[in-house]
Amino acid sequence: MYKLLLSWRYLRTRYIALASIISVTLGVATLIVVNSVMAGFTREMHKRLHGILSDIVFESHGLDGFPDPEWHMQQIRQVVGDDLEGITAVVHVPAMLNFQVREQWITRQINLIGIDDRTYASVSDFGQYLLHPENRRQLSFLLREDGYAPDKPGFPESGWKYRRLKTAYERAYEEQLQLEQERIREIAGDAAGAAPAEPNPPLAAPPGDPFGVAADPFTAGAEQGARTFDPMTEQFTGIILGIAIGSVRHRDPEGKVQDFFLCRPGDEVQVLFPSSGAPPKPVKETFTIVDFYESKMSEYDSSFAFVPISKLQDLRMMIDPQTGVTSVTSIQLKLRPGADLNAIRDNLQRRFPPNEYTYRIQTWRDMQGPLLAAVQLETTILNILLFLIIAVAGFGILATFFMIVVEKTRDVGILKALGAPSGGVMSIFLSYGLSLGLVGSGVGMVLGLLFVWNINDIAAVVEWITGREVFDPTVYYFREIPTIINPLTVAWVMAGSVLIAVLASVLPARHAARLHPVEALRYE
Amino acid sequence: MSNTVDQAAQAAQRRPHVRFSTDVPRQSANDQRQRTADLGTAGLLAARQVVKSYYKERLAIPVLRGVDFAVRDGEFVAIVGQSGSGKSTLLHLLATLDAPDSGEIHFGGRRIDNLPSTSRDLLRNRCLGMIFQFYHLLPELTCLENVLTPCMIAEGVWNYWRRRRTFRERAEHLLEMVGLSHRLKHKPRELSGGEMQRAAIARALVADPEILLADEPTGNLDQKTGQGIMDILTQLNSEGLTVVMVTHDVTVAARADRIVRLVEGRVEPEI
Q1: Which of B256, B270, B247, B253 has its CA nearest to residue B81?
Q2: What tens digit of pLDDT does each residue of B30-61 get?
Q3: Domain spans in chain A, listed from the N-terminal domain onward
Q4: DSSP code string of A125-159
Q5: Chain A contact for B95, CB < 8 A?
Q6: What is the pLDDT of residues A114-164, one digit of tens each?
Q7: What residues of A are in contact with residue B196 (Cβ under 8 Å)?
Q8: Which residues from B are below 8 Å from A6, CB to CB?
Q9: Per-residue pLDDT averaged across A168-172, rounded?
Q10: Out of A10, A410, A517, closest to residue B140 by CB
Q11: Which of A9, A418, A518 sits opposite B125 (nearest CB)?
């Protein structure tokens, strides 16, 4: 009883020890904040990666793919059984995308993906990342009238409405241009009567000017095969672009993050990609943007472009002209929640042994292994570093405790004279260390949790004070800092810090326990 | 647990709790002489041929050079001597706070200096009460808590909690006896020297010890306050408590039944 009473009284009266515990408090709070943010970040990343990637992917090594996906899918269904929730065939091909903005050609390196609009949404959360609400419900490669991105204020007007306006404007512009050219020709004709001048087409591009071309970049292409193509009522094959391909994220003069759209649904883009077969030949095709795809994973948003698989197979000559059998580059599988991904992958690998079939069969975790491992490593290193900080704090506690034991030498002598055993004296200081650890880590936990719960407000205050963005949405694509409080992690952090505080008090407590009672009583 | 401690505890139980009554007659001078003649190791507390030295850089400084001393049950003995004569050292050895280099300490007829430390701790807690020149109260605790400390040490948390009312009543009773019933919640720094020493006496008595060992109990007090403390000690002795007091003040020592004089680490023969 005296141990509890004395350690409680020491706790209440020795503020120097409380000061030494502040470092533990801060360490605990920081660990909780860092772990929560990292867990939130990891979950968000997992969610997005998993949302974009299906559970298991069959992939051919080459761009030619493998034939007869239906047979493969049937075999896969037999192997996977009831665990299979969705399956779709996909064609992946690296490509180059061009579009024109204010007479400048913008070129982007993209990953062109041919998808089946009926089944692709069943293997990933692809649909929910599209901007048009109708496309989120049922994907379509047809341009919508309007109503894109209702939850994205400032998104420019898109769809047929925009396309018609744009086409009307371009036509009016062309008419105006023709009128101007005729007027100039007339003036030139009048002047030629007096003095013959050199022919000088006024709107022709000056030599060496790559941007000085006609206003509509697709006119030439359209003229060849589709003279009757009317952009007011018709569209090319639809393409869904990653939002970062068609936009640039920047800050306005007030420092707010804004997206500037270089193109939008209703515009045309030109895509260049290799055909299948040997040797691959370049294939050029014009597509109409029908929606944007925003997963908020920078890597995907800046490279993915989706087109209908049948069109891509056709363009890449992946359909056997005699048998009509198609080829695909990968098959994606969605499994029942809770299914053992690795076991199913292994079963599939046994069914399609790598030495017979040149496929790569991977789970989404395998595919993103290095990234997930990097984040895990980062979390581990941060935890180690922060725990080292608490360990350093432990040495501070040790020093303070020694001071307190020296100060309390006479009290130790009194207790021993009254019959307190050495173990009892040691327990006083150990329970003092324990209570300090509990107080320090308890306060740290409260601080840490408060910090996590208000992290976005705190970030806003820090931004306001420093003028610098804490969590740059142009880098992370998060509008808010994601956090998850894992009670087990909090418990581990608390237990670790309390243990450090107790360990730091072991040496001083042992010193106190070993004091000779007579010497302790005479200590001044 | 050793038999020594058990016996002492049984003896304590047999003794009626009549402290501070005045119906116990003081012994006569003849009785004292007779008892002194009988002394050996048979007294309640005895030292036989005790030698103790302190060491400074391998140099032995002898303090006690073969002390024979005994105190009988109910006796009030004063140990006097000059500074450095070894009075306090002898008291510490009797209290098992220190161990002799050679010789033996006996309590209730059993040797106690070679007991394991846990037994010695228990002996100090249950059978020996101690008071000091500088009172040695724990500054973080109130007067009442200081008095209760030996009970807290003796009992585990659960037992103490179960019997807390009994302990508290006894502590309050003792504090009332020493005239500190109005100072229960006061911290030692809020008490005067005399009050602190009275609280220390109450603390020494709370476990109902066999013997009270007092190390210069008036050494830090003015004469009047010192007299008050001596009155309490005399009163306790008259009620049957054995008291061994170390002092350098002859007038204070005169209040004891018997005076033992230490000179250069030896007991001077009584006249």
Answers
A1: B247
A2: 443 344 434 445 568 888 888 998 888 788 88
A3: 2-48+371-521, 54-190+197-367
A4: SGGGGBSSHHHHHS--SSPPSS---TTSTTPPP-S
A5: yes
A6: 998 888 877 877 888 899 999 888 888 999 998 888 888 888 889 999 999
A7: none
A8: 138, 140-141
A9: 90
A10: A10
A11: A418
